[in-house]
Design a protein that fits this description.
Number of domains: 1
Number of helices: 15
Number of strands: 0
Distance between the termini: 31 Å
Structural class: mainly alpha
Shape: globular
Order of helices and strands: HHHHHHHHHHHHHHH
Low-confidence stretches: 1-6, 292-302
Radius of gyration: 18 Å
Strand content: under 5%
Mean pLDDT: 80
Helix content: over 70%
Length: 302
């Protein structure tokens, strides 16, 4: 029996509230990941992030109509998306570990820029002159943040940019998958494949966590899964164009948390570059609003 879609209820204010709350939870998840990465291997973070996220993912499946939403004839594409998202998770945890929290978040905001730049070679979508100008400006902002002089962690910046690229490629795969598969199924298959992929390597990197740290590990997956679920609810209640710009509040939360926990202060190049990338991303989000599916628009920061 095919799942019955829930009746749509437009409530822009509620949608914005869900998106802001979702971004806040993701910011907490990133901070916890940065904290744990100081003492534990990255593969442990990736495993717990995906394994525990199965709980809210299956809740999303239940609300969407049951196990029927997991039916797919495109397991290969689902696996490819999970591999891309897994690479994004690894890169993001390395970036959060090696960079100030706000710096890492700001660099990952380049995802919409890479999305636009890659839409032509991957999907053969036309990219007009105005969009190429926006992409060029965004890349300039990334270069400013990346400190060409060599200051900062080069490896951390490379991982943050890799995370943005993976997010962009992952978004392009979602565009194709949502034509045939349910969005709740896509989210759940990603968590399943990422967990299965991380499990075989886990024994080689396992470090038995202290009880408090074990709870923090579990919270990464639970918080991430709930945040993704709230993002879905945000897009259920309001158009993507109305809620997607609130993804950028993550930079505010990252700056506050980074200062309180680690005493991190953003540098002038980071502030200028982040402002350029944010404005460029907002322009591209607005430009794409009429043509990008809601599920795809939500994945810019995943």
């Amino acid at each position: 029996m095919a799942p019955r879609p829930l009746p749509r209820v437009d409530d822009v204010r509620l949608g914005i509230l869900y998106m802001v709350a979702s971004v806040f939870l993701f910011s907490i998840q990133n901070a916890i990941g940065k904290w744990l990465a100081q003492s534990y291997p990255i593969p442990m973070l990736v495993f717990f992030r995906s394994a525990v996220a199965l709980i809210p993912s299956f809740l999303l499946v239940y609300r969407a109509g049951g196990l029927a939403v997991l039916r797919t004839n495109r397991l290969g594409a689902q696996f490819a998306r999970a591999a891309i998202w897994g690479a994004s998770n690894v890169a993001s945890f390395f970036a959060y570990h090696l960079l100030p929290l706000a710096d890492a978040v700001a660099l990952t905001f380049a995802a919409p820029i890479f999305l636009t730049a890659l839409s032509w070679p991957i999907l053969k979508e036309r990219v007009g002159r105005q969009r190429w100008i926006a992409v060029g400006a965004g890349f300039a902002g990334v270069l400013v943040m990346a400190h060409p002089s060599g200051a900062g962690s080069t490896l951390g910046m490379a991982n943050a940019i890799l995370c943005a690229v993976c997010n962009a490629v992952g978004t392009l795969t979602v565009r194709g998958l949502t034509r045939t598969d349910h969005s709740a199924g896509i989210v759940t298959w990603t968590a399943i494949f990422m967990t299965a992929g991380a499990l075989p390597v886990l024994p080689f990197f396992w470090v038995t966590p202290a009880p408090v740290d074990f709870l923090l590990f579990c919270s990464i997956g639970l918080i991430g899964g709930i945040s993704q679920y709230w993002t879905t609810l945000a897009l259920y209640h309001a158009p993507a164009a109305a809620v997607s710009p609130f993804n950028y509040t993550a930079l505010i939360w990252a700056s506050i948390i980074g200062f309180i926990v680690w005493g991190e202060l953003p540098t002038l190049p980071m502030i200028v570059g982040a402002a350029v990338v944010t404005l460029t991303g907002l322009y591209l989000l607005r430009h794409e609003a009429g043509r990008v599916r809601p599920e795809a628009a939500a994945t810019f920061r995943r």
